[in-house]
Backbone:
């Protein structure tokens, strides 16, 4: 009985020791968890404060940076796109260049069918030669042979007149002597008058042939020659227009027509044969928002980016600022784009070495105050 009670007492002591150990173990676990929680909270709080401080410093730094003047733009050669057409309507005989070819000022790029224009030039030139001959004839007068023939006629009619007058005098003497009748005397008198008239006519003809040209005849001949030369120049000018020449040194950007196709000269419907430009220096035509026009100045630095070239920046400077606001030239197709705003057209000339295709749409950023570090105003275009 006493032994049984000792066993029960021992079991109670053991169970009490086990309870105290479990309680101590649970308290230790709770203390470790609480310590970990407090440590994690401290770390999170410190990280948040550090992040907020970093954001505040960044915001303060950005606040002191100049805002970029942003706008969409389009790449073009420094000469702008020059569309070359024909002043005459007709069919292309030959187009001598292809896209990308280098060209020079005055070089023939294309030629129209021009056989009829060349014939007009030849005809006008022949007419000039004929009018020159007419003027020389007027200035030089009659030929020597014509002068000699006229003088011979004078001598002949003079001799005939002298003979007729001699015969008339003899008939007058015979009539006084009563040998011839009055009718015969009258007949020889008439013959003498006719011979005298022929002699006077020969003298006038010789004077006409031998005399210098009249002033009015010379003026008419000179005017005819000037008219013929003017007609020749007109025909040559039309013929020259069948050759389409380059007005600049540059390259062919676009070929619109090929040999054998017809072209027209229309003031309402342009029909270019080629588009050319000088790509030695590229420019970007930028649409500057009307709210930024007061910030744009000549000489400001600028750069452009394009989706096709990633984050690469192409630097340049403002070389021209427009003087009149107008509608947008470049559309970005963005849903948030403002299409009802006015823009000021501004030209940015890119630094040498920039290789961008003509007509590429780019995003342009103008740096005010000459700074190189700036940020773009979001949502401007």
Residues:
């Amino acid at each position: 009985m006493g032994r049984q009670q000792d066993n029960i007492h021992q079991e109670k002591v053991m169970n009490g020791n086990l309870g105290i150990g479990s309680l101590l173990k649970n308290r230790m676990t709770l203390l470790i968890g609480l310590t970990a929680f407090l440590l994690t909270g401290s770390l999170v709080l410190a990280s948040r404060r550090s992040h907020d401080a970093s954001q505040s410093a960044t915001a303060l730094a950005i606040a002191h940076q100049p805002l970029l003047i942003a706008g969409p733009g389009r790449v073009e050669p420094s000469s702008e796109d020059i569309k070359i057409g024909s002043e005459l309507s007709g069919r292309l005989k030959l187009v001598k260049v292809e896209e990308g070819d280098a060209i020079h000022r005055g070089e023939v790029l294309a030629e129209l069918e021009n056989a009829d224009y060349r014939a007009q030039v030849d005809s006008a030139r022949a007419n000039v030669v004929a009018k020159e001959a007419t003027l020389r004839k007027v200035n030089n007068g009659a030929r020597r042979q014509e002068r000699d023939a006229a003088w011979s006629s004078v001598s002949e009619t003079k001799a005939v007149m002298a003979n007729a007058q001699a015969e008339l005098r003899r008939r007058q003497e015979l009539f006084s002597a009563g040998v011839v009748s009055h009718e015969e005397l009258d007949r020889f008198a008439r013959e003498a008058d006719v011979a005298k008239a022929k002699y006077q006519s020969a003298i006038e003809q010789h004077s006409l042939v031998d005399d210098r040209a009249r002033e009015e005849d010379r003026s008419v001949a000179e005017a005819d020659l000037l008219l013929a030369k003017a007609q020749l120049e007109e025909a040559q000018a039309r013929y020259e227009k069948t050759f389409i020449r380059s007005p600049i040194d540059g390259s062919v950007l676009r070929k619109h027509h090929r040999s054998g196709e017809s072209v027209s000269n229309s003031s309402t419907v342009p029909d270019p044969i080629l588009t050319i430009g000088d790509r030695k220096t590229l420019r970007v035509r930028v649409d500057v928002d009307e709210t930024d026009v007061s910030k744009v100045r000549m000489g400001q630095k600028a750069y452009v980016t394009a989706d096709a070239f990633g984050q690469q920046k192409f630097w340049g400077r403002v070389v021209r600022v427009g003087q009149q606001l107008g509608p947008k030239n470049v559309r970005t197709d963005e849903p948030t784009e403002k299409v009802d705003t006015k823009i000021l057209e501004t030209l940015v000339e890119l630094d040498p070495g920039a290789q961008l295709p003509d007509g590429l749409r780019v995003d342009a950023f103008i740096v005010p105050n000459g700074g190189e570090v700036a940020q773009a105003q979001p949502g401007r275009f």
